[in-house]
Amino acid sequence: xxxxxxxxxxxxxxxxxxxxxxxxxxxxxxxxxxxxxxxxxxxxxxxxxxxxxxxxxxxxxxxxxxxxxxxxxxxxxxxxxxxxxxxxxxxxxxxxxxxxxxxxxxxxxxxxxxxxxxxxxxxxxxxxxxxxxxxxxxxxxxxxxxxxxxxxxxxxxxxxxxxxxxxxxxxxxxxxxxxxxxxxxxxxxxxxxxxxxxxxxxxxxxxxxxxxxxxxxxxxxxxxxxxxxxxxxxxxxxxxxxxxxxxxxxxxxxxxxxxxxxxxxxxxxxxxxxxxxxxxxxxxxxxxxxxxx
Length: 293
Hints:
Jelly Rolls; 5-stranded mixed β-sheet; 2 domains; disordered C terminus; ATP-binding; TPK_catalytic_sf; 293 residues; thiamine binding; kinase activity
């Protein structure tokens, strides 16, 4: 696997961030693909609870952030006899946060159930950032590796300043963990691509569905020069920066059967893509991961 030297501003890119990304592993998880799940406050709702149950039951590490525990308890744990993945809903490994929104009786209840409670009172970082630090610590403590950390961030009713804070945490996550951190927010998936080469396998269902076949590349932190293939409007050594070019509202130039998008970038880019909100719509096609390009 490719490992690049750090790029400007201390951006160290790990080997785990290079190569082939399969978004289906994020949205339609397989038990044999180890992952961690972080539930943010307002991340769970009636509209996505079945999806969240699937992600949660297949995860190896499970973290509730502060007020997310309220929603977890009422929408997931109390319904553990009828989960979409046909297993009792596991308890969180950790509940973290500054605890300004969790119901105090639930904090006591889960503590008594043996859940690890990790207070993170530092107000200079968001609860999400601190939860990534907690997840990275658990991965190190267990001496294991995760394919990704999936973050359930909420619905389209989220506050815009919270969305910006989420992107800021994704940008910072490279300094915290080498495990890719991926956010699901309503009908969107997004994560930060570090400097280097990336290949993203786009499922056929997205190419055929106009409502979810959109994608974009947005510079974060500083300008980046990028080249792409597989997009309708590809980039060719073009600089992305606010005040210059930002590649939003793009789509795929791929056959109906799906295919690969490649991105080569000199610096961090936010990759964002549409997704169908019901994982059951997908007929999984498993393939063996390939190394390199």
